[in-house]
Automatic annotation (TrEMBL):
<dbReference type="InterPro" id="IPR041489">
    <property type="entry name" value="PDZ_6"/>
</dbReference>
<dbReference type="GO" id="GO:0006508">
    <property type="term" value="P:proteolysis"/>
</dbReference>
<dbReference type="Pfam" id="PF03572">
    <property type="entry name" value="Peptidase_S41"/>
</dbReference>
<dbReference type="GO" id="GO:0030288">
    <property type="term" value="C:outer membrane-bounded periplasmic space"/>
</dbReference>
<dbReference type="InterPro" id="IPR029045">
    <property type="entry name" value="ClpP/crotonase-like_dom_sf"/>
</dbReference>
<dbReference type="Pfam" id="PF22694">
    <property type="entry name" value="CtpB_N-like"/>
</dbReference>
<keyword id="KW-0378">Hydrolase</keyword>
<feature type="domain" description="PDZ">
    <location>
        <begin position="101"/>
        <end position="167"/>
    </location>
</feature>
<protein>
    <submittedName>
        <fullName>Carboxy-terminal-processing protease CtpA</fullName>
        <ecNumber>3.4.21.102</ecNumber>
    </submittedName>
</protein>
<dbReference type="InterPro" id="IPR004447">
    <property type="entry name" value="Peptidase_S41A"/>
</dbReference>
<dbReference type="InterPro" id="IPR005151">
    <property type="entry name" value="Tail-specific_protease"/>
</dbReference>
<dbReference type="Pfam" id="PF17820">
    <property type="entry name" value="PDZ_6"/>
</dbReference>
<dbReference type="InterPro" id="IPR001478">
    <property type="entry name" value="PDZ"/>
</dbReference>
<keyword id="KW-0720">Serine protease</keyword>
<comment type="similarity">
    <text>Belongs to the peptidase S41A family.</text>
</comment>
<dbReference type="GO" id="GO:0004252">
    <property type="term" value="F:serine-type endopeptidase activity"/>
</dbReference>
<dbReference type="InterPro" id="IPR055210">
    <property type="entry name" value="CtpA/B_N"/>
</dbReference>
Length: 398
């Protein structure tokens, strides 16, 4: 019996010794008396793999013709790593860029008030001008291609830089070179403080409610709920939601709004390499006729909402085919003022459709007249898309 206990003790000691050895070799860095360091195996492999990066850094710091800023070299290396994927929506953001990005979804910023994306040809395309901003007043339209910013050529490869140049202090000017219908022209626009008011409501004749959503920021679903309740208290019988020129925004806000409109069931599915997720509506749904206005400026989160409503037959879409951005981004805050925005998944409508590069075709395709000029107020005489949606809802509530 004593022998068995002795052998068991030996086995335990061997196991403990092996665990300690493995931990020292693979996890813990050990400083030897001579100043040398034993590093974990994985860390050593990384150091070997990235040794050229460190070599280049030292060469540039020590030998480049002008004095270099090590922090800029690091930012440049990190930006290059993100951009090497060829995905314009995956970007490393330095302190200024990350601050600007966070401001755009949480507050106000100095700029001209346009939202841009990258098309299949690597052009920077205006998704939409934000309502009541310098960009809208200057006549910038969805689909415009931005060729230059302040005489600097831009494309999807330097989207991040182009956006940064367009932003700036209130009262300063920025010049855009724009291509539209094959013709190029310039616009010099004075920057203003852009306030992100994302929800507007009104009551049309016959008790048909109207809610415009300009984008999905952190307060949009609460503002939408307030607008919806206000219209219901006024006796609303049917609803038109206007997602035209809505570039998207926060997925969670979109899902929250969809939960107010859809009966119980799937809203959207996101599928990534690591993680996939289904978002569900708890119901019971809006309980009245619903039409949604969309166009080529409706992108990302607005397409998620429109796609869910169409696929679940909770309402109809009216307008023109949407932008076609079926990718989901997430943001990493490194807590030092910098951040990484990267594509984490593709999203699929309840019918299993990914609309990346294709967009969503409405139930009723309606073009605006070529000479139509948007009005500051709801236009039931010239806005053919709104007129069609109004007629559909009016017919359903009778």
């Amino acid at each position: 019996m004593a022998k068995k206990k002795f052998y068991a003790l030996i086995v335990v000691l061997l196991l403990v010794t092996n665990i300690i050895t493995f931990t020292v070799a693979n996890v813990v860095s050990v400083v030897l008396p001579n100043g040398k360091v034993i590093v974990p195996r994985e860390e050593y492999q990384l150091m070997k793999e990235y040794s050229k990066l460190f070599d280049i850094r030292q060469i540039l710091i020590n030998r480049y013709v002008d004095k270099t800023d090590p922090s800029k070299l690091l930012d440049g290396a990190l930006k290059g790593m993100a951009s090497s994927l060829g995905d314009p929506y995956t970007v490393y953001m330095d302190k200024k860029e990350f601050s600007d990005f966070m401001t755009q979804t949480t507050g106000t910023y100095g700029g001209i008030g346009i939202v841009v994306a990258v098309d299949k040809e690597d052009h920077i395309v205006v998704v939409s001008p934000i309502k009541n901003t310098p960009g809208e007043r200057a006549g910038i339209k969805s689909g415009d291609i931005i060729v230059e910013v302040n005489n600097k050529k831009v494309s999807g490869k330097n989207l991040d830089e182009a956006v940064s140049i367009m932003k700036g202090p209130q009262g300063t000017k920025v010049t855009l070179t724009i291509m539209r219908d094959g013709k190029t022209f310039t616009k010099t626009i004075t920057r203003e403080i852009i306030k992100l008011e994302t929800v507007y409501e009104d009551m049309l004749p016959d008790k048909i409610g109207y809610i415009k959503i300009t984008m999905f920021d952190q307060s949009t679903s609460n503002d939408f709920k307030s607008a919806l309740n206000k219209l219901k208290s006024q006796g609303m019988k049917g609803l038109i939601i206007d997602l035209r020129d809505n570039p998207g925004g926060l997925l969670e806000e979109c899902v929250n709004i969809a939960n107010m409109l859809l009966p119980k069931g799937v809203i959207v599915t996101t599928k990534g390499r690591i993680d996939s997720q289904e978002y569900y509506s708890k119901g019971p749904g809006l309980g009245m006729p619903l039409a949604v206005l969309v166009n080529k400026g409706s992108a990302s989160a607005s397409e998620i909402l429109a796609g869910a409503i169409k696929d679940r037959k909770a309402g109809v879409l009216v307008g023109t085919t949407t932008f076609g951005k079926g990718l989901v981004q997430t943001v990493v805050d490194f807590k030092d003022g910098t951040g990484l925005k990267y594509t984490v998944a593709k999203y699929y409508t309840p019918n299993g459709t990914n609309i990346q590069g294709k967009g969503i075709e409405p139930n009723y395709v309606v073009e605006l007249p070529s000479d139509y000029t948007p009005k500051d107020t709801l236009d039931l005489k010239g806005d053919t898309q709104l007129i069609k949606a109004f007629e559909i809802i009016k017919r359903e509530i009778k």
